[in-house]
Fold these 2 entries.
Entry 1:
Amino acid sequence: MREVWHPPADEITLAGVMHALSDPARLHILGRIAQAEDGEPCSDLAEDIALHKSTVSHHYRVLREAGLTRTEVDGRSRVIRLRQDDLDKRFPGLLPAVLAAIDV
């Protein structure tokens, strides 16, 4: 399985995470990803969100580059997962607080 670039856990910044969380669409996407135990296929998420595919792709990239998600590529499909362990080590309690406040 091929992976796309992700920041190392020790390079995830609070400013980057907060920027990624500042958009309501990205919060919704993050909440959906958190609900999926084995990750969420990008195509499934994109179908359920009332945004253009290019906009959804942009939001995926912002979440990934901020260190909130990990995207794995398998052939033509992509699966997105939360980087919960990395985020809990870097910013304890932040992700559970954010997820508790999201209305999905």
Entry 2:
Amino acid sequence: MMEEPKEQPAKAAPSAEEELARVRSAFVWRVTTEILTQLLEALVCDTVLNELEKESILEKNLARADKARSFIDTVRKKGDKACKITIKHLQIKDPSLFSQLRLNSDPSAQQDALQKCQPKLKSKLKKKFQRVFEGIAIAGNPTLLNQIYTELYITEGGTAEVNDEHEVRQIETASRKPDRPETTIRQEDIFKDTPGRHEPIKSVLTKGVAGIGKTVLTQKYSLDWVEDKANQDIQFIFPFTFRELNVLKEEKFSLVGLVHHFFTETKEAGICSFEDFQVVFIFDGLDECRLPLDFHKTVTDVTMPTTVDVLLTSLIRGNLLPSAHVWITTRPAAADQIPPEYVHRVTEVRGFTDPQKEEYFRNRFREKEQASRIISHIKTSRSLHIMCHIPVFCWITTTVLERVLKTREGGQLPKTLTEMYIHFLVVQAKVKKVKYNRGRATDPHWSPESKKMIESLGKLAFDQLQKGNLIFYESDLTECGIDIRAASVYSGVFTQIFKEESGLYQDKVFCFIHLSVQEFLAALHVHLTFINSGLNLLEEQQTTSKKSETRESAEKHFYQNAVDKALQSPNGHLDLFLRFLLGLSLQTNQTLLRGLLTQTGSCSQSNQETVQYIKKKLSKNLSAEKSINLFHCLNELNDRSLVEEIQQSLRSGSLSTGKLSPAQWSALVFILLSSEEDLDVFDLKKYSASEKALLRLLPVVKASNKALTCQHF
């Protein structure tokens, strides 16, 4: 009978004395005289060496290398305990050299440091992330994230290529997508491998339009780790925002130094290396990055000081701390800043699906009847329903409808985007009046102070929209007549509109809570300027309307010029701005802003001329996206005649595609793309068998999974 092989004893870790012997030549080659002197002084303090031994090492040897050899040999003769103390001091005095020598730091000491640091870090992150201010940054009523968090629709796949189309267009495209098979992913599984994948997922890029929930997604991921609900194999999560990092543009840090700077708990615990830990770095808001990301510039040493942009590129490439996981969030327009070869997984936050929208409103409105009324109202307005893909728009909607339902029982709810945003502005003005100025709810809400504030914010919104900026700094505010000392009042009063953020620094960063709010205020500024002074801010050479020109003629030119400007934009960057500007031309909407507007403009004849001008444009050969936005503009002007005409023909079965004008074809495409019916299978034969019909209905065919055509196609 064969003897079973005896189990080999586990190989013991090398002793500290053996470790110093192993690195002796490398230490002698690399250590500086300055570090050597510091080590000697530390060992004298710890009574490992005496003053005589220290002087002997420094003075008897003239060359630096001889001093270093003498130092190592003297310490090794003192025994293993002395060697351990020396290694510990080297880790603190010169972390870079310690890392290069790959010295075996005491595993039990590392575990002690982890146990000391992790609870403090988790406590800090819990305080930071457990409460959220929906839509706002530093004021208002905080809500527990776990109470209001509605699961977001996140898909895997796609590319990190740039998409500079207006984000509302992207939302509309997403809202049309049928329930086709897609790989969905939960936030806690963002780094988990998929079956059949051979390489681990180290870097993830998550795309999503503004307000879709990217930041809240990363906060929930961190909070679940903090509360021991998920990803307990991770030992550290370090969340950063690009806004915080922008402030450090001119400074230099090592990776360890950067972590110590933001998360002081790691420094206090004496952690000078992260190679032996599972670490996740989160970088939120790549689209706000003001650092020059050059992926040809990298470092490999976690203790070498360099600029923050080089640290980032090195970390993303995997040259620096290759064991780390990196998660970056961005708006689609900035996705191409990171070369695709350095991204292992691309995900997209699609916001809320239709059932998730309903879940959100039922969470916010506890009364079933009220929640049902709001949900059915939003479904009747396609533009509102589409925008509710964005969580922050759902929040704006609840803010408005909550107030409207309280003050107008049984009254009409806002149906257009312009109405919704006017109500939102009015709600904030009323809140400011009662909450901050100790006024009564019945007092006029447009005080001279709040009017000036809106004018300043409107100018800021328009000026920065022209430049393509969504993030502003102190100088931008000063240019618009906003006193930086009063900025806290602005953010404290109109918190729901304007955010002020300051992290570890005094430098403050400002932005509007959502791009759509910036575009609404920009449109309001252009409208107010024209009504009050006759100045058209959209013209390159800004001129006031001529004295000989009638008011009706000036208005006609103003709105037609705005339509032309929006159509000239290749990526639709003025689409939403145009909707708001035209919506503000209606007398009914101007009435809602009574008090802010000192005089009103736009007679019904002028509005009708704008409607006819848009219909004329629809008869041209426009892209589907441009046509769709013009129909949304007609909706803001309360004109649904073209759409209703085609809908009537569809209902009666009398639609003759052979006789449709280009504008009517556009209306048909708009109706089909806006339909709540699933576009999984589109039967083209129902409409026409001609090649012309196929070309006209191509956007609908593209949005469908399957199109049924005649055989000769």
